[in-house]
Amino acid sequence: MSNKLIIGSHVGMSAPAYYVGAIDEALSYGANTFMIYTGAPQNTRRLPTNEMHAAEGIKYLAKKGIDVKHVVAHAPYIINLGNSVKEDTYELAVTFLQDELQRVADFGITMVVMHPGAHVGAGVEAGIEQIIKGLNTVLDNDTSGTIIALETMAGKGTEIGRTFEEIRTIIDGVHKKSQLGVCLDTCHINDAGYDVHDIDGVLDEFERVIGLDYLKVVHVNDSKNERGAGKDRHENIGFGTIGYDTLLKYIYSPRLAHLPKILETPYVNGVAPYGHEISMIKNKVWNADLKAELGEK
């Protein structure tokens, strides 16, 4: 197993270069992986993947030495498999997720991170049952082989996935477990109430409840909130309540060495911070002046 640091961030997919441009953006940050959305996360408008230079991008990844197995996609936020209150919202989520799995595969990507869903007032049990139903509908008919990595959530509103137990219950109900994984988000587990500073305790609990074999990707984010706030507000590396030293433990943990680490930290004064943050991570020296250097007063 390689101990090479696999680090990157969310990147854009804008015209005219799309996938090729996303790769160049990641490389400009000193990254060796990245995460994309295959279209705007807030709506259903999607360009055909050939118009987004999917095939060219796959070749470009190989040319630039980025292992496509480490590249991650993120499902749009409009997918809510947990909605048992509005049937049309649930049906849209199922149909859209089916299409999204194939779109992700067109980019050569093997994994899509997805928020499990929200029960919108029907209760956690009903929401989990609906999510299981939706995942089985999608995966039982899927031929792409794309893995769905359920993201650990902060628990805001009626979100499902705040606890490892909720995610485990979903996994237990899904038929094709080979196409399920988990994305661990450091900000989310902090806001959900886990003691992120006790990394071995967190990972031991994850292993006990879910199993570390299911863990496929780590979202590395600081948090603006205290533990258990249930709010989900990301902060730049070292500027939040989790702190640089703790986040570095996740990034360099031998137990997580084989997994891609993805930054989703906020832009600073309209500037992407990822190149600076990746540099801080690689050099293992936190820059307390980062925000001032990027123009934030």
Quick one: how many beta strands?
12
Order of helices and strands: EHEHEHEEHEEHEHHEEEHEHH
Q: What is the SS-derived class?
A: alpha/beta
Sequence stretches where pLDDT stays below 50 over 5 or more residues: none
- Biggest sheet strand order reads 1-2-3-4-6-8-9-12
Radius of gyration, CA atoms, in whole angstroms: 18 Å
Described by its quaternary structure, the protein is: single chain
General form: globular
Strand content: 5-15%
Q: Give the averaged pLDDT, no decimals.
A: 96
Q: Major beta sheet, specifics?
A: 8 strands, parallel, barrel
Produce the secondary structure layout.
Elements: E1 7-10, H1 19-28, E2 33-36, H2 54-64, E3 72-74, H3 87-106, E4 111-114, E5 117-118, H4 124-139, E6 147-151, E7 159-160, H5 164-173, E8 180-185, H6 186-192, H7 199-209, E9 215-220, E10 222-223, E11 234-235, H8 244-251, E12 261-263, H9 274-283, H10 290-293
Parallel strand pairs: 1-2, 1-12, 2-3, 3-4, 4-6, 6-8, 8-9, 9-12
Antiparallel strand pairs: 5-7, 10-11
Helix pairs in contact: 3-4, 4-5
